[in-house]
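Quick one, tokens below. Sequence please?
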């Protein structure tokens, strides 16, 4: 069996993707939960809105993890996960920043 020597850049890229999947996916799921909860609260009781958003966040987290290893580059994985997380986080924090809550 032929031994394969892995380059250090390959190891860094895989580590970066794993961090993007774990940490970035968690941030995206949390921001998604907060934003969706605020969006659903006018239409249903608060508890149901939180439960619905939390259950859908598991799907978002799974998709983020899959995307982290599907993306062409590690930078693409980070960008496609963190930019929506930042946008959803801003949407979730907007009522507080505007003085509403």
């Amino acid at each position: 069996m032929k031994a394969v020597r892995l380059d250090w850049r390959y190891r860094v890229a895989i580590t970066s993707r794993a961090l993007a999947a774990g940490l970035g996916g968690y941030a995206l799921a949390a921001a998604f939960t907060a934003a969706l909860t605020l969006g659903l609260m006018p239409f249903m009781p608060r508890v149901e809105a939180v439960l619905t958003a939390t259950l859908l966040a598991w799907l978002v987290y799974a998709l983020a993890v899959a995307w982290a290893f599907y993306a062409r580059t590690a930078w693409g994985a980070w960008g496609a996960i963190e930019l929506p997380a930042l946008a959803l986080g801003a949407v979730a924090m907007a009522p507080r920043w505007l003085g509403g809550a």
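The radius of gyration is 17 Å. The helical segments are 8-40, 46-70, 74-97.
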